[in-house]
Structure formats: structure tokens, C-alpha cells
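Minutes, structural biology subgroup

Action item carried over from last meeting: produce the C-alpha cell record for DNA ligase (ATP) (Mesorhizobium sp. WSM2240). EB confirmed the sequence was re-checked against the source entry. Recorded below for completeness.
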Amino acid sequence: MNGAVWAQPEIIVDIEYRGWTQDHQLRHSSFKGIREDRSVCEFL
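Output recorded by EB:
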């Protein structure tokens, strides 16, 4: 992951994707919505 920039999480979202490429990237990813029923603290 050359050139990656890390940030503090602020929201939880749903993402759908079709699969992974050979170089470990998401294939055909799409944003499905913000998860207001979940807290960022649950994932830290």
C-alpha cells in the first residue's frame, strides 16, 4: 500500500463489491449507505 494515508474513523458505511483483483483491490465496489445503527467505537 504505497502512498496510503491513514485517518481516524468517523462513520460506518455499507459497501458492496463483486470480488477481489489479483493485486488485492476491491472489484466493482459501490457505496450502499451510512450505518447510523452502529458506532465507530464498536470497531476500534
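Discussion: The mean pLDDT is 91.
Next step: EB to file the record with the rest of the batch.
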